[in-house]
């Protein structure tokens, strides 16, 4: 039976999965830290994080400081959180996608320090968006690293790691769920080892460091000058947020499914495609999807969404949205002015010649 007193710091669903795993394994969790409630939904009402909601259902105390810096903008909240952590008499603090920087006093407070669940094989993809960036980069595998936290950005010693394959159809949604489950299981195993003094710390190698920078909404716009393979990866990486998007006439379309063209997968003779067409040009349409010229190769869009509509398979989408062969997907302003000026307009972002 687990005997450690385990604090938990986390906010989204990824963290909630780990918290549930610790609770199910029998660890005593006297205190949870989570981000303050945020406005959400159409009414922008304050909404508790998934971790807070789970903790309250299971009668676990919750602290929600805006900051843990005792000398920062919210010193009273930080001091109250410090007292709550002291009162909890923690052996260890487990951290999973918390969203706040832990100052040194937090790292030093529990007897066994702070342990983080990170969704990558460190030192690859340190930072905020390791799942998205692994898919976007075309990595064949990823995994979870349980790390002893230090003051750096995901630089602490590794405690436990396990690899996980990335399939050719994985989106951030599907990979997230598998990694969350893996992270919860590995954290339980790590704490069981810690309880009996069986943990081994391994410094991260100096080679292979990459950073998974936060996903920005501005990245969602498809650049049709990129290759079909790169665009398809980005479509999968940006599902569910922010979603890959492109302009069509006066509308914005979200692209939720895309496959680089091969004759084997589409039953279309590649000779029908004119690779000298402008990037973003619709080359072919059938029930499989909308096939588009890219900077390298062609791409078939299989699942799309119109503004205000639902995600639909291409065949259903086309019944209500008359995309046609010869249409150019890309920047609306560039397309309109390009037609008016006979193509004299200089290239604009999102519309590549």
Explained architecture:
- By secondary structure, the chain is an alpha/beta fold.
- Helix content is 29%, strand content 24%.
- The protein has 10 helices and 17 strands.
- It has a 7-stranded mixed beta sheet with strand order 5-2-1-6-7-9-10, with helices on both faces.
- The longest helix has 24 residues, at 172-195.
- The protein starts with 5 loop residues before the first strand and ends in a 13-residue tail after the last helix.
- The model is unreliable at 333-353 (pLDDT under 50).
String of helices and strands: EHEEEHEHEHEEHEEHEHEEHEEEEHH
State the share of residues found in helices, binned by percent. 25-40%
**How many helices in DSSP terms?**
10
User: Main β-sheet, in a few words?
Assistant: 7 strands, mixed
Which regions are unreliable across 5 or more consecutive residues at pLDDT < 50?
A: 333-353
Q: What is the approximate shape?
A: elongated
Radius of gyration: 24 Å
What would the average pLDDT be, to the nearest integer? 90
- Class by alpha and beta content: alpha/beta
Sheet with the most strands: spatial strand order: 5-2-1-6-7-9-10
Terminus-to-terminus distance: 65 Å
Number of strands: 17
Give the DSSP E fraction (strand runs of 2 or more residues): 15-25%
């Amino acid at each position: 039976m687990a005997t450690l007193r385990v604090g938990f710091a986390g906010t989204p669903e990824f963290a909630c999965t780990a918290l549930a795993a610790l609770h199910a394994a029998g660890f005593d969790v006297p205190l949870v830290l989570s981000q303050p409630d945020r406005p959400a939904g159409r009414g922008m009402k304050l909404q508790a994080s998934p971790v807070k909601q789970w903790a309250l259902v299971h009668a676990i105390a919750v602290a929600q400081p805006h900051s843990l810096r005792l000398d920062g903008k919210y010193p009273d909240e930080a001091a109250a959180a410090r007292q709550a952590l002291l009162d909890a008499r923690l052996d260890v603090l487990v951290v999973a996608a918390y969203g706040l920087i832990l100052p040194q006093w937090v790292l030093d407070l529990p007897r066994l320090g702070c342990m983080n669940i990170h969704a990558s094989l460190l030192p690859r993809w340190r930072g905020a968006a390791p799942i998205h960036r692994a898919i976007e980069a075309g990595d064949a595998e990823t995994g979870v690293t349980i790390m002893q936290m230090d003051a750096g950005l995901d630089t602490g010693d590794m405690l436990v790691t396990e690899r996980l394959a990335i399939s050719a159809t994985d989106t951030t949604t599907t990979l997230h769920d598998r990694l969350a489950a893996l992270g919860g299981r590995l954290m339980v195993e790590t704490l069981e080892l810690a309880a009996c003094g069986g943990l081994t710390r391994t410094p991260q190698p100096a080679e292979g460091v990459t950073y998974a920078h936060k996903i920005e909404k501005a990245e969602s716009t498809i650049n049709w000058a990129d290759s079909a393979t790169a665009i398809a990866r980005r479509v999968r990486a940006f599902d569910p947020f922010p979603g890959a998007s492109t302009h069509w006439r006066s509308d914005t379309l979200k692209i939720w499914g895309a496959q680089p063209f091969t004759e084997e997968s589409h039953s279309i003779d590649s000779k029908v495609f004119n690779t000298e067409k402008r990037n973003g040009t619709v080359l072919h349409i059938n029930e499989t999807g909308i096939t588009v010229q890219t900077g390298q190769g062609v791409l078939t869009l299989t699942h799309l969404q119109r503004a205000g509509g639902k995600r639909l398979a291409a065949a259903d989408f086309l019944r209500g949205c008359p995309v046609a062969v010869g249409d150019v997907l890309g920047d609306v302003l560039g397309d309109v002015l390009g037609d008016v000026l006979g193509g004299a307009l200089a290239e604009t972002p999102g519309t590549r010649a």
